[in-house]
Design brief:
The protein has about 425 residues and is mainly beta. About 10% of the residues lie in helices and about 35% in strands. It contains four helices and 31 strands. The protein has helices at about 20, 315-320, 345-350, 390-420, and strands at about 5, 25, 40, 45-50, 55-60, 70-75, 80-85, 90-95, 100-105, 110, 115, 125-130, 145-150, 155-165, 170-175, 180-185, 190, 195, 205-210, 230-240, 245-255, 265-275, 280-285, 290-295, 325, 340, 355, 365, 370, 380-385, 385. α2 packs across α4.
């Protein structure tokens, strides 16, 4: 093909057209265009290159605009750093301050630093921010699990996710190759090991640790049904002759009588045990402190005792005691009505071993006002005195024996007198 060589310094506008060239155009030097002048390529000016004096525009109006090359780089004006790199059969890389921040890799995309979605100042490797509610969707195909896997230096540690087979949310421990917890579709939660609250020491399957001097609860059970129906704990056990699991015991706290206002809100403690395959109430503690049950046994094995002696002067001791009737003051918060018993101070003057003031249900200050709550933490007041009334029974036994000896002695003397 013929080549036309242009050597003149100045060519008038439209002096040369492609038809006039009749072949390739070879320039011995630079091609310079004034600002806002264009290089137009193609019929209808399909590709136009223009510099406005401030910016350069490359416009393609037909088909694709292709930059072909095994390695295509976009650099700054000084050609001193790359803004982007595109390598054939390799990565496409976007850079910030000549540092790679996003690149394609085989099968995916690589972000070497932090990724911010909705923010340009990510505070962690992945930071999602929104102006309102923010959600992250993990959408698996039908009949497939979805979840998040946690690794440490490439090693699997945990997976949390949705189990499409059993319709539950699970926590899987790769270290133990075992599922640790599952939240079922019905809202129930299963834990395969111990549940520890406030402690990392597994005393049992459930451990709740508190570090407080307050007597507030460490664990609260709530029944949201109006009417004082209460809440409790049930113990179940598998029978040895079958796979059936039956209730062995139940501890239940419920409203006593009416439970419809602050003035009538009282509670009671109820304990059930299984007897002859029937769950039966065995103990009830009313809100006024009254115990109701079938009986009690005091441990009394001789093999556990020492310093054993027969009670001396039992009759004198009994004579020193005074049985009283009384009613409780309101501040005692005890059942109303006439009661029968002893006065602790009177018993203490006769047999002090039966009086206890080391622990109790309330504390009394010097002005005789009463402390009802946080008793162990209270630094003022002393424990209200209590009497171990069962301890009076063996004294009565020995007193009756002393009395019987006196009766028998008198009977012998009377018989002797009558025989004369």
């Amino acid at each position: 093909m013929a080549t036309t060589k242009i050597t003149s310094n100045v060519i008038a506008d439209d002096a040369i057209t492609s038809d006039q060239l009749g072949g390739d155009l070879t320039m011995p030097g630079h091609v310079s265009l004034a600002d806002n002048k264009e290089i137009r390529v193609g019929t209808g000016n399909d590709l136009v290159i223009k510099h406005s004096g401030s910016h350069t525009t490359l416009t393609n109006t037909t088909g694709n605009l292709t930059l072909a090359g095994d390695a295509v780089y976009i650099a700054n004006a000084a050609n001193s750093e790359y803004l982007a790199q595109f390598i054939a059969n390799g990565a496409a890389s976007l850079r910030y301050n000549d540092t790679e921040e996003l690149a394609t890799v085989s099968g995916g995309v690589y972000v070497p630093n932090k990724l911010g979605i909705g923010t340009n100042s990510a505070s962690s490797e992945l930071h999602v921010k929104g102006s309102g509610e923010v959600q992250v969707y993990i959408d698996a195909a039908t009949n497939n699990n979805s979840g998040v896997r946690f690794l440490e230096n490439g090693a699997n540690k945990w997976t949390i996710g949705n189990d499409n087979t059993n319709d539950g949310f699970f926590f899987y421990d790769f270290g133990a190759s075992a599922e640790r917890m599952r939240i079922k579709a019905d809202g129930n939660v299963t834990i395969n090991e111990a549940l520890l609250v406030g402690t990392d020491a597994a005393y049992d399957k459930l451990a709740v640790l508190r570090t407080s001097t307050s007597q507030t609860a460490g664990m609260t059970l709530i029944n949201d049904q109006a009417g004082g129906y209460g809440s409790g704990i049930t113990w179940e056990s598998k029978r040895s002759d079958a796979n059936n699991i039956q209730t062995a015991a139940r501890l239940y706290v419920a409203g006593a009588n009416s439970w419809n206002s602050d003035s009538t809100a009282s509670s009671q403690f109820i304990f059930f045990l299984r007897s002859s395959n029937t769950l039966t109430e065995r103990l009830r503690i009313n809100h006024d402190g009254t115990f109701t049950g079938s009986g009690s046994n005091d441990i009394s094995d001789q093999r556990l005792k020492e310093n054993i002696k027969t009670i001396p002067n039992a009759l004198t001791t009994i004579k020193g005691l005074t049985g009283r009737t009384f009613t409780w003051k309101e501040k005692a918060k005890q059942p109303p009505g006439t009661k029968y018993g002893f006065l602790a101070q009177e018993v203490q003057s006769v047999v002090s071993d039966l009086v206890n003031n080391q622990v109790g249900l309330l504390k009394i200050k010097e002005d005789e006002s009463v402390i009802y709550e946080d008793l162990d933490a209270a630094k003022e007041g002393e424990w209200a005195k209590s009497v171990q009334t069962t301890g009076i029974i063996p004294i009565l036994v020995e007193a009756m024996k002393e009395q019987q000896t006196l009766i028998e002695t008198l009977q012998t003397k009377v018989a002797a007198l009558e025989s004369k």
